[in-house]
Amino acid sequence: MLEPKRVKRRRQHRRSLKGNAQRGHTLAFGDFGIKALEPKYITSRQIESCRIAIARRLQRDGQTWIRIFPDMPKTSKPAETRMGKGKGALDHYVAVVKPGRILFEIAGVSEAKAREAMARAAHKLPMKTKFIVRRDYDGP
């Protein structure tokens, strides 16, 4: 008996939010940073609002590093559209963030100023975060 031909379906790969961060989980550039405690997608708009909040608080002091990049496209269908007719159009980009990932780093400022700037940035994010300090940081 002949078996019916199997049609190979093309699957869309989606990066998983499961597990902890395998890379980007230690401070690499600055003395202070914020670390993600929950898995979440972060949009490019959220990253930009965090960057502006940090820059305004630091007032040109120190240096800032953004350790995440929104490289995953997200699509959406228009409102009040019937089902079917294919996948929706590209809407925005997101960064996949797993627990333990360092999101932002700061160097060249006091700990109090860095803590304040990171707190303002953390308010813009949709997840719980933690302020971290480099182990060998002595302070000014």
Say how many strands there are.
7
Count of DSSP H/I helices: 2
| CATH evolutionary superfamily of one domain | Ribosomal protein L16/L10
Any idea what the radius of gyration is? Answer: 20 Å
CATH topology of one domain: Aldehyde Oxidoreductase, domain 3
What's the arrangement of secondary structure elements?
Layout: E1 32-36, E2 40-43, H1 44-58, E3 63-66, E4 72-76, E5 89-97, E6 102-107, H2 111-122, E7 129-133
Antiparallel strand pairs: 1-6, 1-7, 2-5, 3-6, 4-5
Helix pairs in contact: 1-2
Summarize the structure.
By secondary structure, this protein is α+β, with helices and mostly antiparallel strands. The strands form 2 sheets. It has a 4-stranded antiparallel β-sheet with strand order 3-6-1-7, covered by helices on one side. A 3-stranded antiparallel β-sheet has the order 2-5-4.
Detailed description of the structure:
This protein is an alpha+beta fold and 140 residues long. It has a domain of 88 residues: Aldehyde Oxidoreductase, domain 3, CATH 3.90.1170. The chain is 19% helix and 27% strand. It is built from 2 helices and 7 strands. The protein has a 4-stranded antiparallel β-sheet with strand order 3-6-1-7, with helices on one face. It has a 3-stranded antiparallel β-sheet with strand order 2-5-4. Helix 1 runs antiparallel to helix 2. The termini are far apart. The mean pLDDT is 91.
Search tags:
alpha+beta; three-stranded antiparallel beta sheet; 2 helices; 7 strands; rRNA binding; tRNA-binding; Large ribosomal subunit protein uL16; Ribosomal_uL16_bact-type; Ribosomal_uL16_dom
